[in-house]
Amino acid sequence: MHGVNSMTPISxxxxxxxxxxxxxxxVPYVLLAxxxxxxxxxxxxxxLFSLFLAFQSWEPTSGLANMSYVGLDxxxxxxxxxxxWKSIKNTFWLAAVSGIPQHLIAIPLACVIxxxxxxxxxxxxxxxxLPYITSTVAIAMMxxxxxxxxxxxxxxxxxxxxxxxxxxxxxxxxxxxxxGESEFIKPAISFVVFWRYVGFNTVLYLAALQTIPKDMYxxxxxxxxxxxxxxxxITLPSLKPMIYFGVTLTxxxxxxLFEEPFILTGxxxxxxxxxxxxxxxxxxxAFDFNDFGTASALSWILFVFVAVLTxxxxxxxxxxxxET
Amino acid sequence: MMTESRRLQGSHSVSVxxxxxxxxxxxxxxxxxxxxxxxxxxxxxxxIFTLPPPLWPGxxxxxxxxxxxxxxxxxxxxxxxxxIALASTALTLIFCSMGGYAFAMFEFKFKKPLxxxxxxxxxxxxxxxxxxxxxxxxxxxxxxxxxALFIPGAASAxxxxxxxxxxxxxxxxxxxxxxxxxxxxxxxxxxxxxxPLLQPALGTLGLITFIASWNNFIGPLVVMRSPEMYxxxxxxxxxxxxxxTEWGALMAGSAxxxxxxxxxxAFSSKRLIEGLTSGAVK
Lengths: 324, 282
Known about the structure:
The complex is a heterodimer.
Chain A: H1 12-15, H2 27-53, E1 56-57, E2 68-69, H3 73-79, H4 82-116, H5 121-133, H6 136-146, H7 153-162, H8 182-209, H9 214-222, H10 227-255, H11 259-264, H12 278-288, H13 292-317
Antiparallel strand pairs in A: 1-2
Helix pairs in contact in A: 3-13, 4-8, 4-10, 4-12, 5-8, 8-10, 10-13, 12-13
Chain B: H1 2-9, H2 14-41, H3 45-48, H4 61-71, H5 74-105, H6 111-123, H7 130-140, H8 147-153, H9 157-170, H10 173-181, H11 186-197, H12 199-215, H13 218-223, H14 232-238, H15 247-276, H16 278-281
């Protein structure tokens, strides 16, 4: 190796090319080799193999040799499975109820932080972003105690609010069994998911807001446009590409929801399976019911749902013909 | 009209104060669960389940820690989590900086299709690979082996994207060519020129990789089967029981799992936030 003086061309040592030196054409292949090797084995191959497995009947206990081709059986079985459709309904419900508020809150929140916060901006953004980088397990465990029926803080706050005059009657008078009763599991999970990702979306919108030229607002103010009109006619249209991107990410993430419901329902889906998402059902089909073929078919059906919805989002956000 | 709009823009108008209060209350809601995690970590199970619940730190932290070490392989799990996160970070940084540099600075066969393939897998939901990944690990005999978690993770498409982007925007092609003219070996160029210049991007990718590995739940859930091999999130999850969960100890464990992240975030929140949202901005 040549060290610091490699930049001085006169050094005679440098004229002599070592024999082991790589041919320049080979350099990129050598650089890429470790990554590509791992990528093919652990990134690409599993995807292809999962497609193969979806057409096989196989139980992990019977050894790799006992795999048998069953055609579309796994797909048909899944599509006729009541629990699968229940999990799809749960997943859509959770994705919508946790996802839509993320954006409805993140957009105005980003606007306010962008316009008003100077000195405390980083601290504020940090507070909203922090849940995104912390462990789902730690978060879900924390919320399990907060959601606890008899002593949980959330029910305490509700009980306190129910004592208030006038508005008190709007709150439930009995403590809610958030993670035990089927009708409350999904709202509880949705809140945790919302809480976790709202800051991430806020940061996306803050980044987009910084690209809107200030003089557009100045011109609008000169013309007497109200703040609301400025938001509606300048800010929102400028944010449209980021809304598309953010909504797509939320959708893709929401449809594969696994960790939060898995931990909040103790891995079983909660009473009446009302907290069981499709990704969770796939995991259970494979590792609790030992049916790897059906689980693979299930994962591809879920993938089709994700792909179709992503495509529909794309259609919804594309400028219509003749509009531009 | 003019005075009206000016008054609205002034920093003391009612709407501005309302906005401040709302955003401030919101950030309290965001931080409250963390506060209670730390408060509950210092209280016994029976103290947590009283009316009203404790609002201030207590004295039972070491008691909780003792329960934690009795119920789960706590120190093992902490060690595995740390070891896997560090190994994963080191491998990802080496392989992705090499790959990203190759994609940015070299021409070679199948460059474009390969890059598209790598980027395409970023869009594919990870649950599709879950079952085959378990089977591969089983065939390789890597079940219950820490490297089952950090070796596959090193092939990070996001890492390649980040590194390639950084090389393209901040390493001048002329610099590489000048070094080559001067007879610097290709390995020397990578190690002495590219790596030092990549430092900011390596820092960002390193932080992201470390945090992702530290928090990883699904990966260990699939490949770590023996309790003494559990990583911290998995071990904490195993304490959950329908009848008598040790909530104080569980909160202490969760708090210990959260502290390293809080420290990293305190020192590098700006860099982390930029890195984690860089896919959107670029």
